[in-house]
Amino acid sequence: MPGSTAQTNKFHTFYLQQRAEKSVTWADIKVNHQLDYESIKEYNLTIRVENNGAQQLASEATVYIVLEDVNDEIPLFTEREQETVLEGEPVGSKVTQVNAIDKDGTFPNNQVTYYVVDSDRNEGKDYFEINRETGDIFTKVMFDREKQGAYALEVEARDGAPSARPNSNGQPNSGE
Asked: What is the span of the domain harbouring residue 158?
């Protein structure tokens, strides 16, 4: 029976499918739409059975369905930044803090860890370091504006569990 809210099957997220097995009729609960833990964490379904005889009999039961979170969200940075560092600042000076949010509903799926991307195209990798837990970025060298006036730094945010997304090969989700 459809209820009055999404959690009680208002949108026909679930349906019943009858099957017969050795003179017994079963009703399997099937999923009609994709389920998303971040939207709805649990459902309460009322199942009603009735006969078609002269004396009409009926019975109801409530089925509780509790979803488990899977790691299907990617950490996303909240903003792109441009920051400045004064030349001559000491090594270890804080430049900025980056922040990424993972919309997964549970730990470790939503735990974000930060990394400086280790690639040849990341020109700032040798000049800055990052606190993996906080996203604070610090200088690794003392800068001289006459040598170079700007650096691009590529940072990656990874979540804390193997991804549930297709073709992820057991790696965490990440965003740059």
From this structure: 68-175
Contacts of 53 (CB under 8 A, 6+ apart): none
Token reading at 78 = 């909240």
Rounded CA separation 106/1 (Å): 31
Q: List, in sequence order, the alpha helices (H) in 5-155.
A: none
C-alpha 10/C-alpha 81 separation (Å) is: 44
102 vs 109: CA distance, rounded Å: 8
Which positions ≥6 away from 30 have C-beta within 8 Å? 14, 15, 16, 17
Q: Is residue 1 part of a domain?
A: no
Q: Please tell me which of 12-21, 50-59, 78-87 the model is most confident about, judged by mean pLDDT.
A: 12-21
Asked if residue 107 and residue 47 are part of one domain, the reply reads: no
Q: Which two tokens stand for residue 88?
A: 């001559």
pLDDT tens track for 92-137: 999 999 999 999 999 999 999 999 999 999 999 999 999 999 999 9
